[in-house]
């Protein structure tokens, strides 16, 4: 047992800097001895100054609380004595320990010395899949009580329990995992090596357990359960309304019959039975997902073949597999086997991970991410890298260990997570995947999704967009430079020098330095040509019509074939790659004689050279391919970061052909197809989406309605005294938007989405609100400003009762915030695509050639669909209440405005001034 004493410390202060006059207002120390939480020392501290309002609100510590308390000078010696000889533990030692040391110095007390442990660092390693490591988030996830966050006594007590939870999990890890962790722990920022060593000592004395853990070349990983056998018998489909009611009522308490749900179920059943094709617009509120999963499951069992369900994102895939499939299993009374299939690169390659672990010259981010993965491997049954929560530098490490090839040694095949998912598809009744994966299967020599009994394409309005991006090619200056740096850097200890050492070892007397000199010269020639081409791209001056507001600039790709530097890059890169292969040839031929570390170095070299070969093909595809009539190619850059921000995109204009290719294949398999979404039609152009999907007019389009009472809690406000967006400067409009947001937030107490169509306008509005300090009591979360993915930002929003989320395009759809967590959605401007967007321009030009007006035939219906999707964020259940607030007056002043309003559900629409709206909201919330 660990005999050391741990002192878990938390401070509350008047600010972040002791040297700038901030002071402690509360200190708490919780002691852990002999593996048990013991005594606590808690004191209020008089800072000798007024506590700032923000700190009072954050901590609930008032000036009265500290009025009679001692100053820190009076207790400094006492605190120092208590900490003497202890291991200092805090949730972010960089703050608590640094602040305390400065205070000791100010009071003339000797600085504390000893080991420190940061529970943020430890928790990230021990709980690598947790969405957040803020104390109140991680403790909530682990079920650790935290009565009042930002109070030193409660925070210290919770941190002590978090530390104990980390130690308990550490003690449960396999011995081999602990050995690998301990070996890397010396590079961590806090003194965790001793903690790992204590756990390792204990593990060496215990008998091996019989957990489902296997090992790949010394790396323990959890063995996934064998896929369940296909279910061969299920209850018959409930044909009659009475049978459906009986089935649902038996399993779900308080079940309410929804006619549209039952009708949609029958439509899905008919499509599968008749091997036909159908589209169905199904709004929120009728239980769409369960309505298609139930007949799909029954049909799969009856046909003996799986049914595939495809949706837009992996997040939606996970949602279907989790909560929705649980409901279906409950209804059917059977453990229906379901397989999840994502793209190959979504999964870890244990072979690549093991290779990288052999290379000891790791950065902090690489070391830390490797430690997170080692713990994660003892838990994950999917190998899906999306489960991990890693830093930005950690993401670079993850990209290097993704599965990219089906060729691997026999021992790795036994630990191939992706292959296990494919195997699971063969014995599954339902296969849940995403649109991209479904379309990718078309190009495989041996398709995974075959034979099939049927396909359900959910979020079908996004399917054609996915198809258009299937052949998308992207040039990123930063990505290219990073890749070039891996093979071209001649610095001490870098990959190029390591390969030269391997060359010398393999060739010995026959090694000739001229080979390295040729490689260096070829790389310099390639680099010079590359920078010349980049200079041409960054030096291009957009025309007046191409100039963008803000810092982001986009414009069509200039004529790169006319400039010789682009062909020069292709030629020089080809020469360099030939030279790189020659440089490594002798090492490759002696691969079997290399040490483990040498083999890992060679594998790294081959990986990065292969990446450059892929980029060589992409260079020709983007810059030297004259077959561009069906593609849009454009440049993006940020004037604040040139050339670092430079990107070039090449995207197919339309994906309709690929969609029809997929549909025809399904027909040859006699697999019925149901296309469904909440938005498959547009007011004034009912078959807009089905036409994009290439469907004949003879294919039925069914439209279902939500229950009559579903939207009773919703109301739409059009703010009629906002400035006209087309008549005022952007800065004036942003100022009006910021004012409207602030006033709305103050009366609703937060819980708002603010939806933008421009990242630039979002950022400026957010910054203006922050500078005004009017919403200091609220958590402001801004896409592109706050760190984290879309789903992590959404989780943060859900966790705070007083939060505001500022989002752009990806928040208009595909995110759910049911119940009181979302009280209002503010639409800053109607969601038209920017007329300066190169993809929009290219599509508009194509439509003009066909005699179709781009605004009526493309821009308007796309915007109407987005607004419908935005409204769908507000009401997710019949019990939800909320306000949909439109700040863009064009919805009432332009003739096309009625198209937007007609597309929205039948709810009350009020035209009001901002002042009157605020008054009405205030009255509503007071009631």
SS field, number of helical segments:
35
Spatial strand arrangement across the major sheet: 10-11-9-12-17-8-18
> How many beta strands in the DSSP annotation?
25
* CATH architecture classification name of one domain: 3-Layer(aba) Sandwich
What's the CATH class label of one domain?
Alpha Beta
Spans of at least 5 consecutive residues whose pLDDT stays below 50 are: none
Q: What is Rg?
A: 31 Å
Distance between termini? 59 Å
Strand content: 5-15%
- What number is the mean pLDDT? 88
**Helicity level:** 40-55%
Structural class: alpha/beta
* Largest sheet features: 7 strands, parallel
The CATH topology assignment of one domain is Rossmann fold
Shape: globular
CATH superfamily of one domain: P-loop containing nucleotide triphosphate hydrolases
